[in-house]
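Progress note, sequence design subtask.
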């Protein structure tokens, strides 16, 4: 079935944006800052220290509860301060390059962020999966990935860079914007779900988030931690930590810190019960083998029957789907409060695997269920728009250092030329491009594809 598409355009990427700018341009963003960092930013911007605590509370409410993307909407903030904030900060969202809606109601957004050391702007994919009782947002933590898992499409894209806390939180804000998931606009989603698609019947449209998009979250720990604590903040986005799941391929040394410092639900991309096979499917296993990984799971802070670990197991035909594999999985997980998600393999162009036959998946699930573990078979969602588990990927690549420096030099030359042209007054908006502009455009064109 063909997916319905909207906003499926690709606008040219802006160039010459310096590292460290916000997701929307040159002004620093207040999105993704801790309260302490926001307070420091306001003091630096001239807000009197005696007002800072109150102003942070106001901004936090407007950004995360009301979902505003401009300071002018903040009616309980003085006009003078709103104007000052507008000049010095931004709340703008990243550009939505493309938006796709699957026949089953799954939505995928391709979002564009500034270069920040990657040489050119970068893009990530974020997926919303609606169901009758909940809506789950699958968020990315990196542009690309270093792990090269052989069954995963994202693993075929080299790591470009980590996403910042701002960029991680922005994915959630964009989804709530597009779905109309704020108190004053709830139920007025700009995009209607396809007829017959499952959607949450009441409450929040984004009720759960999972760090299961592009990248390995525990290789971007500090930014992921900051973003998830903002998502769970009770005075803002206010998502329960039991509705936030962080998925890792097994970065064993970081698992205790995830439990102690973030405290969200944990998911493990397991996919094999033998080290030799997992070495092939998840190469990180060569560094952190199954025994070490499961020992870390047994010691995960807060682990209980109410806070079980989810083990993700992609079903690959003739590879890991035999009854003997199911029996070994049960043996390995003994003593760990766990749920096993069985994931029918989602094919992608050039993938070397096939999805297990349905009979094999059901036989596998029956063995695991009989041992006392919940083992739901995940219904594939969004396959028609390559939005299913393991299918996410963008076309972003990190530029070579030589090309990046040349681009930055061209941007600096263009900025210098523009500054010189404006010394005698307002620039002539109808004037022909400067030589520096032309040189930079030619260079970017040559580097682009």
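Output:
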């Amino acid at each position: 079935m063909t997916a319905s598409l909207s906003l499926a355009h690709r606008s040219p990427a802006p160039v010459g944006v310096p590292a460290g700018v916000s997701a929307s341009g040159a002004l620093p963003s207040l999105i993704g800052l801790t309260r302490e960092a926001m307070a420091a930013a306001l003091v630096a911007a001239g807000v009197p220290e005696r007002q800072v605590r109150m102003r942070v509370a106001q901004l936090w409410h407007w950004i995360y509860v009301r979902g505003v993307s401009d300071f002018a909407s903040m009616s309980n903030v003085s006009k003078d301060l709103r104007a000052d904030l507008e000049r010095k900060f931004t709340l703008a969202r990243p550009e939505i390059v493309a938006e796709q809606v699957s026949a089953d109601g799954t939505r995928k957004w391709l979002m564009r962020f500034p270069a920040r050391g990657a040489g050119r702007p970068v893009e990530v994919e974020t997926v919303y999966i609606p169901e009758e009782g909940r809506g789950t947002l699958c968020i990315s933590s990196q542009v690309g990935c270093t792990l090269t898992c052989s069954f995963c499409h994202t693993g075929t894209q080299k790591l470009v860079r980590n996403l910042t806390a701002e960029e991680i939180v922005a994915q959630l804000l964009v989804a709530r914007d597009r779905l109309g998931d704020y108190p004053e606009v709830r139920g007025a989603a700009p995009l209607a779900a396809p007829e017959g698609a499952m959607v949450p019947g009441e409450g929040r449209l984004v009720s759960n988030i999972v760090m299961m998009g592009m990248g390995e979250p525990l290789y971007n720990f500090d930014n992921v931690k900051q973003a998830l604590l903002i998502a769970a903040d009770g005075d803002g986005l206010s998502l329960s930590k039991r509705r936030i799941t962080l998925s890792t391929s097994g970065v064993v040394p970081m698992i205790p810190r995830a439990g102690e410092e973030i405290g969200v639900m944990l998911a493990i991309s397991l996919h094999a019960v033998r080290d030799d096979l997992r070495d092939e499917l998840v190469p990180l296993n060569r560094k952190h083998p199954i025994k070490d990984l499961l020992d870390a799971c047994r010691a995960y802070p807060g682990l209980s029957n109410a806070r079980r670990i989810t083990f993700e197991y992609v079903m690959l035909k003739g590879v890991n789907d035999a009854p003997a594999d199911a029996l070994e999985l049960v043996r390995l997980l003994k003593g760990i409060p766990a749920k096993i998600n069985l994931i029918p393999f989602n094919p992608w162009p050039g993938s070397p695997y096939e999805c297990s036959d349905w009979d094999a998946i059901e036989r596998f699930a029956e063995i695991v269920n009989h041992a006392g573990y919940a083992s739901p078979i995940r219904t594939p969602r969004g396959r028609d728009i390559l939005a299913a588990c393991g299918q996410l990927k963008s076309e972003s690549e990190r530029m070579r250092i030589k090309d990046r420096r040349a681009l930055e030099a061209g941007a600096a030359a263009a900025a210098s030329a523009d500054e010189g042209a404006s010394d005698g007054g307002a620039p002539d908006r109808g004037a022909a491009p400067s030589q520096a502009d032309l040189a930079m455009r030619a260079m970017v064109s040559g580097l682009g594809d």
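Residues 24-88 form a domain with the DNA polymerase; domain 1 fold (CATH 1.10.150). Work on this subtask will continue into the next period as scheduled.
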